[in-house]
Structures are given as structure tokens and as C-alpha cells.
Amino acid sequence: MSQLFDNHFSNNPYAKGLTPELIQALIAMFERASAGALAVDRDARITWINESYARLLGVSQSDVIGQPVRNIIPLTRMPEVVASGDPLLLDIMEHRDQQLVVTRLPFFDEEGLVQGAIACVLYDDLQPLTPLVAKFRRLHQDLLAARKALARKARSTRYSLSDFIGASPAALEVKRKARLAAGRDMPVLLLGETGTGKEVLAQAIHSASGRADRPFVGVNVAAIPENLLEAEFFGVASGAFTGADRHRDGRFQLAHGGTLFLDEVGDMPLPLQAKLLRVLQEGEVEPLGSNQVRQVDVRVMAATSRDLATMMADGSFRSDLYYRLNVMEIRVPSLRERHQDLGILCEALLADLRQNDGRAAEITENALHLLGHYAWPGNIRELRNALERAITLSEDSGVLDTGVFRQILPQPAAGSEPAGYRSASAEVRPLSLVVAEAERAAIESALQTTGGNRSEAARRLGISRSVLYEKLARMS
Given a cut of 50, is residue 384 above it in pLDDT? Predict the structure, then answer.
């Protein structure tokens, strides 16, 4: 194979990369070594797909040839590769409920023009990548430690988008929206339960934005006494009140040119909401005790675990401020909504704990299975606490098994379901039973609505009268 590449590039001075001839030579290797492969032409239409990829996608090989690739795989980036001529060597692509690890390579004619591209599925299951991700994170620890040291010296961020761990569909959607938010200088509202990683995400968006080299200033609204909030936000002029012997900048002034992150914005009192709205509209602040206005250039990101829609309805949160803050909304999922990320999250958290105190630990498959049936009301913050306590209780063994977590997680009373646990038996029911119950309910509803008129009920259900009679016979 190396000789093939050497001959190709030595004999063809015009070639920019792979040619159709080389692609033909590689196809046999893709057939054997990958979980699936396909090729497209310069119009991003499928010209070839192997049997394993067609089976993975649930399509027929003959039916997809000539089809635009996005008709078959909506989230593919093959048209982007064909348009740019640049390869995408490693990418995670979501297809239905699967995450596929894919590499995409363009190929060229002798004049260096793109003729098409080929994609190869390296993995159709992310589980084998967990050790690789863990190794990467260990190698990344020195850089992370340096970043945290710098963050302590300046108003900068500690987190990037890679620190929002997860490859589940819910996590990937959050990252997609975060990348969009990073590229657009607009307010962002982060919604989600406590402990889900909203501040990590806010810092990651700032780090990837055009304001990354400017300050990131965070303030937890719920943690500051109400009578001090205005001074904390807008600053204090010298002599404004007893003890104010010098001017002090507020959070808006400190964040000038950068990002101001308002955590738990739902706890902000109404009078301050009105003043915050004015600052957002006018781009200027007036410190307490001063009659001078100062211009500020600040991007505001806000987060809350509260239901702002309900608060607007009862008058405790201003609707005009809500719409000013909620130009782009990102809902951060709870941990119970992305249990499939538990393995990679545990690896990352254990690596971070090892970096902090030097105690190494590994978690067993049985322990992960147990953790997967717990609801995690405290989300990732609770998971980190559980792992930290488990390391302490396991003493010097370095192995975290089910026994140590049973000491930590809430246990059920005798004969009852565990508090905070999901019932595995209640979650999964036979599909045929679920479909049959739904069908029965739809038919009964249609007959009730039409007063027992079976012809009209069949029409509304979108089936023939004879099919309805057959279904009614099976129901009786």
C-alpha cells in the first residue's frame, strides 16, 4: 500500500491527494476493516456503499445509489468535504440513536479538482473509545493544570467545550448549540437543573468566542444579599455612603469588552431587573452615588434552574428582560436524561480527582450499571461527590465496586423501590404490547367521537373499513 502511494505522488505532479484509482484500491480495505463505507461524486450523490453500511443505515444498496447523501444521512458532512476539498479525519456523527465515528476523505482528478469523497465508519459504538478518551484526558492534565493556574491570576476561563463531557445525542446537541453561540455575539440563556454544568458551558462559549482574550466575569445572583446587588453590578462612587472612601467598579465595568455571566438570574429582585434591562438596552451603567454614565461593551450570558415562564406569569420575572436575555436558549440536560454518558463522565471526573489529590481509582462495570439506575437529582455535581466519597471509603484498594456505592447512594426501605432509582422493569415493555394498546386507544377514541359510526371512524383513522373490522374482531 505504501508503494502504491509513493508511485502515485512521484508520477503525478498535479495530484493534490487521493485519486479515483487510489480510492478503488482502498475500497477492498474499507470492506474488511470498517463498520461501513460509502462514496459520493462531486454533487454529493452516493456512487457506492458497502453492504455493512447499508445494513447499519437500514437501507438497500441498490435503492440509495444516485441519491443525494443527505437524503439518506441527514447529518452527514460529506457535501462540506466535497465543496471544500478538505478532509475531516475524525468526527462523531449522530444517526438516529447511534453515534458513529467517521473519517471523510476527498479525492481528485489529475488537475487537482475534487471528484468526490469517501467516508469510512471507524466505530459504530463509542464504548471502545472510552480508554482512548481517558488516555487523552490524562495527557491533557498538564495543560489543564496550567490553564487553571493562569485563571487564578486573571479574569479568564478555566473551561473549554471539551470540558463539557458527553457523546450522547443530548450532549452533542448542547455542544452544537454552544458552537453556534460562540460564533455569534448575542445574549445566551442557559436553562437546566443545578449541577448540570451551566457555568462550564458559559465559560466554554466565551473561550471559543471572539471575546476569548477579554475578561469573563461571573456573579451568582442568589449568593449576594439583595441590598448589595446594585453596588455589586454597577459599582460605587467615592463617598456614596459611609465607608465608601474610594471608587469601586462593578461587575459590568470589570467585564468590559468581555462576558458577564449571571448565574441564577431567576433569583434577581424585580427592582434590579428593571435596572439590568436598561443597561442591556443602552449599554451604559451609572455607579451608585454618581451622576456620571459609563459606556460598557459586555456580552451577557445568564443561567437559571428556575421556571422563568411560570415566574413571568406570576409577575416575579419581567417578560421584557426575559426576551432580552433569551436571544439564544440552550437547555442543558440533566444527568438522568443522558445516562449513556456515565462511563465517560466517571473517567473524566476520576482523572480530575486524581490530578487534585493524587489518589487513583477505577470503577467497575457492575458499579457503572448500578449508577445507571440512579436518577441523580444533583446531576454531575452529585456524581462527582459520590465518586470522591467512594474513593475515600475504598481506602487503598483503588477499585470502586457496587459495595462502596451502596453505602453512599440512598437505599430503599424494606419492600419498596429505591428512592431516586429508576425502575428498569418499568422502563422497557414489549413493543408489540405498547403498539397494541395505542391502537386500541385510537380506535376507541375514534368510535366515541363518531358516535359509533364505523365508516367515519375508519376514515378519520386513515384506514379502510375492512381493516377496521379486522382490528375490532381481534380486540373483542
Answer: yes
Taking only the tens place, the pLDDT of each residue in 24-64 is 666 666 666 667 889 999 999 999 888 888 888 889 988 99
* C-alpha distances out from residue 22 to 9, 41, 107, 362, Å: 11, 15, 9, 44
Check if the beta carbon of residue 110 is closer than 8 Å to that of residue 19: yes
Give CA separation, 169 vs 20, 92, 294, 326, in Å. Answer: 35, 11, 44, 23
- Look at residue 314 and give its three-state secondary structure: coil
DSSP codes, 332-352: PPPGGGGGGGHHHHHHHHHHH
DSSP annotation of 427 reads H
User: Using CA atoms, how far apart are residues 363 and 390, in angstroms rounded to an integer?
Assistant: 10
- Which cell is 146 given? 496550567
Q: In 181-298, where do the E strands start and end?
A: 188-191, 216-220, 259-263, 284-285, 294-295
Nine-digit cell at 128?
471502545
In 10 A of CB 78, how many CB atoms?
Answer: 26
pLDDT tens per residue, range 393-451: 887 778 899 999 999 988 654 443 444 555 444 444 455 555 667 778 778 888 888 88
Q: 317 to each of 282, 322, 391, how far by Cα in Å?
A: 20, 8, 43
Overall pTM surpassing 0.85 (yes/no): no
pLDDT in tens, 288-308: 877 788 899 999 999 999 999
DSSP string over 106-127:
EEE-TTS-EEEEEEEEEES-SG
